[in-house]
Here is the input.
Amino acid sequence: MAWAWFARLDEPPPAVDLCAAARRPDGSEAGFLAAWLAHARPLRHALRADARIFDAAGPACAVSLVLAPSGVRLPFDDPAVAQARRRVLAAAPAADAVSTLLSDASHFEGSITVSRDRERLRDDPFARVFPAERLEVEAGLFGSVPPPAGPTIERYGSASPWPGDRFD
Here is the structure.
């Protein structure tokens, strides 16, 4: 799986691969969402996400953004995280794209759920783990990713998630 770095920012960063303004459902400004496709971590608070969810040609969308409180991380094996992942898989293809957010290979620190249909975001399973914020995001950041073809709960190595779309 290819990784990208993701961060929510107050201002657009000077050096970024993809960036789009975000608004709350009431229309108020909510800063910017940014993605870096480079290997090196661009900012201290940037988190890894599945690189396939980012697309410079992607249309505007609605997003459910779940971020852990500062300094909080849960193991992916935590029952709440595992159940949220199961619910996402059971509901597929309820969203256009979903990615967990992490800084290392074994801790959950948030998620992004992308949909062109706002109603699909009303029941984000990851919002049961940490609070979710619903955002409207401009075009040019998020694309669509087909749901995984196989289970993604099991891991065969702490540095590698299960390859949902292939076996080597």
Q: What stands out?
A: The mean pLDDT is 87. The first strand starts at residue 3 and ends at 9. The longest helix spans residues 79-91.
